[in-house]
Design brief:
Shape: globular
Structural class: alpha/beta
Order of helices and strands: HHHHHHHHHHEHEHEEEEEHEHEEEEHH
Number of strands: 12
CATH topology of the largest domain: Nitrilase/N-carbamoyl-D-aminoacid amidohydrolase
Oligomer: single chain
Helix content: 40-55%
CATH superfamily of the largest domain: Carbon-nitrogen hydrolase
Number of helices: 16
CATH architecture of the largest domain: 4-Layer Sandwich
Length: 511
């Protein structure tokens, strides 16, 4: 019996991992939790905690295995320590799955079926994961559905948490349909509710896609050139290659300008310039001349600095250059990457600084302020910021009419991470109904439409220019205006179920 339950938990972990790119399909997500939920039958919450952790560790090692590659190749730690760091991260993330399993078992013990408890518990815990300890909403369950446009459209109302809720609800309904000892009437009722919600989501998606496509078609088309320099991470910060790097981006940009139509916007990736672009020198002029020659706006990523109190603080920034060669805007990255752009607990644990590769502590920016591109306003998401739903919504509320995501995914090599990162960014377009153009140093660069469709994309590790078109949009979605109301409703319902379990079902035997 113990080994059978362990096998079920391991199977759930494997199916969850296989729900995400680049190894699997989102179809698996709709049944991935059934084995885990089945394994919770008749066990205590403490035992369920272990079952959930078992599923979670398989799931999360499959999702974040690329951390080993990053640290081993670009950190100052041996391979075994890189593996340990990855397993520690996967273990921390697995605690959320363990908490979900324990909570489901605890409520089941008190007479509350999985159909009611599991969807809200998973959603509430997933929401908390996006904020606790600076937040890490990497590959939440909803992101597994990036390839199914009919289902992802609902995120403009509920956010990604509504789609996660629906997926877990289907898992709970399948569990009852196949294994429940509940009455036939209850099982039929639950199945009917689930079918109606899934069908309603698909119908909403079909209708909403058509509406957004019509709105987008009415807007003025703009041309963009995404410059993918494909600069090797191992030489990116080597002073001997600064001139070569600059020349690569110049040549690609000038080649894009010479094509028809000439781009109205040119985008370089995160930290494309391995020097301080803000310094008024010859290198800055060689870059601003590109805008003058092409009569184009240029958005580029560059390290920057601010002098405060006699000290220089580095920042990860994006600069907007106008067609007349003037720097008209700057955005400083707000949500920094822990152990990548700053080191938590550096003072109390100096050994942690070894995890940081080639950078120091960066200073966060002050807010999500759109940059002006002529009459248009662009919301700039630098790298990791594209996985946070609230950042896209904050930009849309501030008047951003399209999004620019600049990133350097060279750290990840050919692992799953570049694919994961791209598909998560696509949801920011859907939630706020904005085009998103994405320039990545080594790929994947892309143009993503307001329905989440990846309209064009580059390959990994190729030096290229991806030309595309986008439109400015000012649609105000429910999610843009009100944010994660659905997730908060799930948290409230968890509280209600908890009160009911404590005061009205206390002492009930395991079911």
């Amino acid at each position: 019996m113990i080994w059978q339950k362990l096998g079920l938990a391991l199977l759930s972990g494997l199916l969850l991992f296989l729900s995400f790119p680049k190894f699997g399909s989102g179809i698996f997500a709709w049944i991935a939790l059934v084995p885990l939920l089945r394994s919770l039958k008749g066990i205590s919450p403490n035992a369920a905690l272990a079952q959930g952790f078992t599923a979670g560790i398989v799931y999360n090692i499959g999702i974040v295995y690329w951390v080993t590659y990053v640290i081993a190749n670009y950190g100052d730690l041996p391979f075994y320590a890189s593996v340990l760091a990855m397993v520690l991260l996967a273990s921390a993330l697995s605690c959320y799955v363990a908490l979900f399993a324990a909570g489901t078992a605890w409520m089941k013990k008190r007479g509350i079926p999985e159909f009611l408890s599991a969807p809200v518990l998973w959603t509430g815990i997933e929401f908390a994961k996006g904020y606790l300890f600076t937040g890490f909403p990497w590959e939440n369950l909803a992101y597994s559905q990036h390839a199914f446009p009919l289902f992802i459209q609902i995120t403009d109302t509920t956010g990604t948490y509504g789609l996660s809720f629906l997926i877990v609800l289907v898992n709970a309904a399948v569990l009852d349909l196949l294994f429940s000892g509940a009455t036939r009437r209850r099982v039929l009722a639950q199945t009917a509710v689930t079918v109606l919600l899934v069908a309603g989501t698909a119908v909403y998606g079909y209708i909403r896609q058509g509406e957004i496509d019509r709105i987008a078609a009415a807007g003025e088309e703009r041309t963009v050139a995404l410059i993918q320099g494909n600069i090797d991470q191992s030489i990116k910060w080597n002073p001997e290659f600064q001139e070569e790097t600059l020349e690569i981006y110049r040549e690609l940009s000038l080649a894009a300008i010479r094509t028809n139509p000439s781009p109205e916007l040119i985008v370089w990736p995160e930290t494309a310039t391995p020097f301080f672009f803000q310094n008024e020198d010859q290198r800055q002029r060689r870059i601003t001349d590109i805008s003058i020659v092409g009569k184009s706006h240029l958005l580029l990523g560059s390290p920057s600095f601010r002098r405060e109190g006699g000290m220089e603080n580095c920042q990860n920034s994006a600069f907007m250059v106008s067609p007349d060669g003037r720097i008209t805007g700057r955005y400083d990255k707000v949500h920094l990457v822990p152990f990548g752009e700053y080191v938590p607990l550096r003072e109390s644990c100096p050994i942690l600084t070894k995890i940081v590769a080639g950078v120091g502590d960066f200073l966060p920016g002050s807010g999500f302020n759109p940059l002006q591109m002529g009459p248009l306003r662009a919301g700039v998401l630098i790298c990791y910021e594209a996985v946070f739903p609230d950042i896209g919504a904050a930009y849309a509320r501030a008047g951003a009419q399209f999004f620019i995501n600049i990133t350097n995914d060279a750290w990840f090599g050919r692992t799953s991470a570049p694919y994961q990162h791209l598909t998560m960014a696509a949801f920011r377009a859907v939630e706020n109904r904005r085009y998103l153009v994405r320039a990545a140093n080594t790929g994947i660069s892309a143009v993503i439409g307001p329905t989440g469709t990846i309209e064009s994309a580059s390959g990994l590790f190729e030096r290229t220019v991806l030309k595309g078109r986008f439109r400015a949009m000012s649609v105000k979605t429910f999610y843009t205006e009100y944010g994660d109301v659905f997730a908060y409703a799930c948290l409230a319902f968890i509280f209600v179920l908890g009160i009911r379990a404590i005061f009205f079902r206390k002492g009930r035997k395991y079911v």
